[in-house]
Amino acid sequence: MIASEGSECGQLALVLSGTVRVYKLAESGREITLYRIGHGDSCVLTASCIMSDTPFPAIAETETDVEALIIPSLQAAEWMSESKPWSAFIFGLISRRLADVISVLENVAFLRMDARIAAYLIAITSQQGTVVNITHHEIAADLGSTREVVSRILKGFEEKGLLLGTRGKITINDLPGLQSYLH
User: Fold this and answer.
1) How confident is the prediction for the chain on average, in pLDDT?
2) Is the separation of the CB atoms in 179 and 125 below 8 Å?
3) Can you say how many angstroms the Cα of residue 21 is from the centroid of all Cα atoms in its chain?
4) ∠ at Cα 146 (117, 55), nearest 5°?
5) Which band of pLDDT confidence, cut at 50, 70 and 90, is reported for residue 132?
6) Interatomic CA distance for residues 120 and 170, integer angstroms
7) Of 2, 11, 86, 97, which is most buried by a Cβ count within 10 Å?
8) What is the rounded CA–CA span in Å between residue 27 and residue 32?
9) Of the candidates 5, 13, 182, 22, which has an alpha carbon nearest to the alpha carbon of residue 100?
10) pLDDT of amino acid 52
11) 5-9, 32-36, 100-104, 150-154: which has the minimum mean pLDDT?
């Protein structure tokens, strides 16, 4: 755990290697991933928290070992007013992450869950290939759903021959078939 909801933002981390997941947790225990931070990136919510002197509004947790450069919040804020390249980096970060969060919101509000899962699997196979090491719980947490709903939809995909699911692993058999859920 790097930061929890309501914590003070005393520093800004620039990730050199590894992955950090930033997510919201509902009272019911359901999670939804807002975005991930990887190599060369930083957390827009932390930057916003530093600039506005407000508490961190989500949870940030490492998914892998992470190496990062830590910048004290006072230094990060000072650079905002003194360094055009730093300001451009931060505003670019805000722009990219805002687009990510809007995409999450659009998906939750406007897509059926089967289409959301199909889009998720398509995106993850473009990074990992057709064999994906992931659990139903991890998919549910990323998409803001429950494991039971994800399992039911994946079982339907499996019955249609689109994929094969085994414990902790999904093999995509029919990428065009999954893509048909997006139209």
Assistant:
1) 94
2) no
3) 6
4) 100
5) very high
6) 12
7) 97
8) 12
9) 22
10) 93
11) 100-104
Instruction: Output the 3-class SS for 97-160.
Output: HHHHHHHHHHHHHHCCHHHHHHHHHHHHHHHHCCEECCCHHHHHHHHCCCHHHHHHHHHHHHHC
Identify how many contiguous H helices and E strands the chain contains and give both numbers: 7, 8
Distance from C-alpha of 85 to C-alpha of 67, rounded to nearest angstrom: 23
| Domain 113-182 grouped into CATH 3.40.50.300 | no
Q: What tokens appear for 40 in the block?
A: 């060369």
> What fold is seen in the domain 11-110?
Jelly Rolls (2.60.120)
Could you report the per-residue pLDDT of 54-96, keeping only the tens digit for each?
A: 999 999 999 999 999 999 999 999 999 999 999 999 999 999 9
- Gap between the Cα atoms of 33 and 94, Å rounded: 17
Residue 165 pLDDT: 94
CATH 1.10.10.10 segments of the chain = 113-182
Could you tell me where in the chain the CATH 2.60.120.10 domains are found? Answer: 11-110
Quick one: pLDDT band at residue 159, thresholds 50, 70, 90?
very high
Which of 78, 72, 54 minimizes the C-alpha distance to 10?
72
